[in-house]
Amino acid sequence: KEIQNTQKQIISLEAKLEAKKSERLGFFKSAKMENIEISIIHGSLDDIDFQTQSSHENGSVNGTQSSSQGRLSVDEIVVDYSSLSSNILRCRDKDEIKKTLDMLESSLKKMRDNVARIQAPNIDFMERLKDAQGRYTSTNELFENLKKRDRVCKQEFEKIKELRRNKFQSLFDSVSERIDGIYKDLAQSPSAQAFLNMENPEEPFLEGVVYNCVAPGKRFQQMCNLSGGEKTLAALALLFAIQSNHPAPFLILDEIDAALDGSNISKVKNFIQKFTNETQVIVISLKPEFFSYAHSLIGITPESSGILTSCVMVYD
């Protein structure tokens, strides 16, 4: 009797096992039909012969034959459950499993409802897309053309910048070489010194040029600390240095003797007399000791009647 009871229990368990296998096979079949991806450690859904497995469940073919033909039975498929949450993996009894399934189905329903509420695609989308693509293409072409023009402009700018720098450097070098000798001639002293320096030799147009002079018999001082007469001689030296590099047909000097004493007036007069061999010099002066050495004089004086008019007198 005990043996019979045991056999009945075995038969009952085998029936339940076969039912579970059939249920498992159904899950795999549904997953394959609906293209649901299942993480599997051993085997794949393609390795299962669902038709043979179904026949086996009905008792027509055994599982070993399926395996011998290169297919896997449901028992041989090993599913990877590691991606499931710990709460799901801890489910053991039917109530917990049912509760978890209900929760998952509820979440799935919400997702489906959200998908259903999504607005239908815009029918004019393709036309708008083509229009946007056309505008993008035209804008991109315009951008490329502007980039080319920008490169050309930059190249032209660099050429002009280099030409400007070369011309400035050429003039600066020439004036810098001549100014010391001209200042010595003006001051009539070999101890006099004049020199030019660029504050930024690499980019001279970003900063300025420093001009300093050492007056005869004095120590070096900043230009701002020189006397009025010394500043006048320094300015004239710079003027004549530039003039010697790019000669002008004539010069007009307006009261350059205003801050000069008699000695310096004589020095400037002597230098200008040598300079007039190359350039005509017109000097405006109120000091007889200066204008008395001119080749020609033009005097301007008010009328003796007191009327605000002037008369011009020419003296040869």
From TrEMBL:
Coiled coil: 94-149
GO CC terms, sorted: cohesin complex; nucleus
Pfam families membership: SMC_N
Record's keyword terms, sorted: Cell cycle, Cell division, Coiled coil, Mitosis, Nucleus
Keyword Lipid metabolism: no
InterPro entries in the record: P-loop_NTPase (IPR027417), RecF/RecN/SMC_N (IPR003395)
UniProt entry tagged with the keyword Nucleus: yes
Name of the protein this chain belongs to: RecF/RecN/SMC N-terminal domain-containing protein
